[in-house]
Amino acid sequence: MDIKEEEHNQEQPVEITLSSCPGTTPATPLSKNQLKKQRKHAEMLELRKLRRMKERERRKEKRMEAKAKGLPVNVGPSRKELKRRQITAIEKQSSPDTISVAIDLDYDDLMQERDVAKCVKQCLRIYTINRRATRPLRLHFTGIKSEGHIHECFKKNDGWENWHVDYHFDRTHTELFDKQKMVYLTCESDTILEKLLPGYTYVIGGLVDHNHFKGLCHQRATSAGLLTARLPLSEHVDMKTRSVLSTFHVFELLTRVAANQGWTQAILETIPQRKGAKAKETSRGMEIMQTDGQENGKHNENEQDKVERSNERTNDLGEKLMTS
């Protein structure tokens, strides 16, 4: 029986796999760093689900508390109102006097993977800010490289193609807009942005570099012959930290100013509290002080004239008495 079994085993063909094939090397296992990244990614996905569940519970509790106190349940504009604003904004965006904002995303190769993710996250916040703004601006995402890092990161967001944004792949702002009506916003510019002009396009650099490429946006803009300007931060507020804002903060500030909000109030309501911003004494306040001083001077002059006139009357009366 043993001999027959050995003969039977010898007749069966040996199964050849990739690992048993001669001339091949076994696959290398994942490194500790790669395993750690996979584990962190899985944990992040689980935490994201938990955070969303907690956010839903918090919103539900807030609605219940507001309902119990007799307050309006909806905090902020409703979906119907947001949809109406979008339709109105789309109709107005066809006008030549529309104010446009372009996010320059032509920095794909200069950012690391985590910085690319932060950049796309800021773009998501910009879209949300514009969607909820009382006066939405026409929003452009320019310089996106097809199948590049930013494009791949956009694909991770469900429904990104349906955003009310003008996407421009492999085309920069210099190819899309009139250079005479385009202003690149950089903190290195000597020109101060005093107001938003209708029909102009304001470009914001979508670069997350932690100050590694300082002045790059300004250098690119000036070399392309574009107008540049900086936000009037130091003219309206005093800050403890540097006056450099993130991309979505700059965009939010523009939406507030476009809605006829003053620069000082818009800046204080936009920038984070950690910057410790405080409003400056405006030139208007100095004018009021000067006018008050002038009015006080006029009042003193009037009083002095009255005294002099009364003295003149007294002297005239004395002369009459003496002659009589």
From TrEMBL:
It comes from the Eukaryota. Residues 1-10, 295-324 have a biased composition (Basic and acidic residues). S-adenosyl-L-methionine binds at L185, G205, C217, L231. The keyword S-adenosyl-L-methionine applies. It catalyses: guanosine(9) in tRNA + S-adenosyl-L-methionine = N(1)-methylguanosine(9) in tRNA + S-adenosyl-L-homocysteine + H(+). Residues 17-33 have a biased composition (Polar residues). Residues 1-40, 276-324 are annotated as: Disordered. The active site is at D209 (proton acceptor). GO terms for cellular component: nucleoplasm. This is tRNA (guanine(9)-N(1))-methyltransferase. It comes from Drosophila mojavensis (Fruit fly).
